[in-house]
Amino acid sequence: MSGARVFVAGLAIALAVLLQGTLFARLPLPGGTPNLGLLLVVGVALAAGPAAGLGCGFAAGVLIDLMSDHQVGVVAICLALVGFAVGLLETDPDRSVFWPMVVVAVAAAAAQLLFAALAGLLWSGGGAALDQLPAAVAYDVLLTPFVVPVVAAAERKVRSSH
Amino acid sequence: MRRPTRRQRLALVLLLLLAVVFVTLDYRGSAFGGLRSGAETVFGPVQRGLAAIFTPVGRFIGGIPHVGSARADIDALRRENEDLRRRLGEQSLDRARSEELARLHLLAGLGGYRVVPATVVSLGPSLGFEWTVTIDAGSADGVKPDMTVVAGAGLVGRVKQVGRTTSLVVLAADPRSTVGARVAGSDELGLVTGNGTGPMALTLLNPNAQVHAGDRLVTGPYGKSTYVAGVPIGEIVAIGGDTGGAGPRTATVRGYVDLTRLDLVGVVLAGPRTDPRDSVLPPKATPTATASAAAR
Question: Which residue from A22, A88, A115 is facing B2, i.e. has the nearest CB?
Answer without folding.
Answer: A88
